[in-house]
């Protein structure tokens, strides 16, 4: 038996012991493990829906890209697919807006507690899932185990490797968490009119930064905050009551952005630079409209059932693992547009990747991630108790 198999068995054995111990301490533990336990937590229903939509969109856009890679550029089918793909890329904006809404609005912890919680719940799972892609790349351990670990850590610090391009958004979110406690304090001291003015300025400057170069006017006219920091702050704004006062205007901009996306894809050879830029205005307006539609419908949104709640609770892990699952589905099932058509191959791939990603996320979270988090808590506990 190889080292990898032995490591997997060790994680399974240790995690089983942890689960058994917790079940002995709480007779409902296994039940809550599958169904969730929100007792004592005030969940924000529309943000759960935003998180779920973002997770579904990110899987769908990647399945769509793979299923339609052979389309001829410039055809009506190609324009339709590229337009849909550009619209679905609002998933990245939704993930970051959702993080801003949750973290900036609800942050009341001390710095140490805040960073500890985010490292435990976000950074450690990210590291564990990243190891999957390190192993899949098959390029790190050819020259020895320790050399492979050092090389992998170096590449991980530099950014996502070729095998995990989708992880760039996690690097962005982790960097935003570093400044989140300070942003939270600043935003809470803004009046409603100042907060609305900040949102308008962020969107205005994003329009200038993206659209002026497209019109041949590359003016260096930027805010001091980065595009994704702006999206993060907008998440707080669109979760604030003041944004609902202007929801009709934001919804109008969102609907217009869909039409703009289609026309831009059909008419501009540089449509990717316009529609897929960091903090692209079209995706910001579309993300804002999705946010506000769900907010306005919150009292009428159905409470998530067991399956939907499972996907919401594991949406972060599904985001991390779905790229590896998509590779597995493509290699093993050989789904292509010749056999099932463009729509059929995309839909079938989407369903398979979603189901398998949810299962893989649950199993990996309850074995490898659980063991790493438990070890980290044991190591840090003496320091926190001082």
Outline of this structure?
The protein has 386 residues and is mainly α. The protein has 17 helices and no strands.
Characterise this structure.
The protein has 386 residues and is mostly helical. 78% of the residues lie in helices and 0% in strands. The chain has one domain (44-384). The chain has helices spanning 3-25, 29-35, 45-67, 76-88, 90-106, 111-137, 145-158, 168-188, 192-214, 227-238, 241-245, 247-267, 271-275, 281-296, 306-313, 315-333, 337-384. α9 runs antiparallel to α10.
How would you state the average pLDDT, rounded? Answer: 88
What's the domain count?
A: 1
The SS-based structural class is mainly alpha
Count of DSSP E strands? 0
The percentage helix is over 70%
Poorly predicted residue ranges? none
Helix and strand element order? HHHHHHHHHHHHHHHHH
Largest sheet: none
What gap, in angstroms, lies between the N and C termini? 43 Å
Rg, Å, rounded: 22 Å
Count, helices: 17
Q: Beta-strand percentage?
A: under 5%
Shape summary: globular
Keywords:
single chain, 386 residues, mainly alpha, 17 helices, 0% strand
Secondary-structure blueprint:
Elements: H1 3-25, H2 29-35, H3 45-67, H4 76-88, H5 90-106, H6 111-137, H7 145-158, H8 168-188, H9 192-214, H10 227-238, H11 241-245, H12 247-267, H13 271-275, H14 281-296, H15 306-313, H16 315-333, H17 337-384
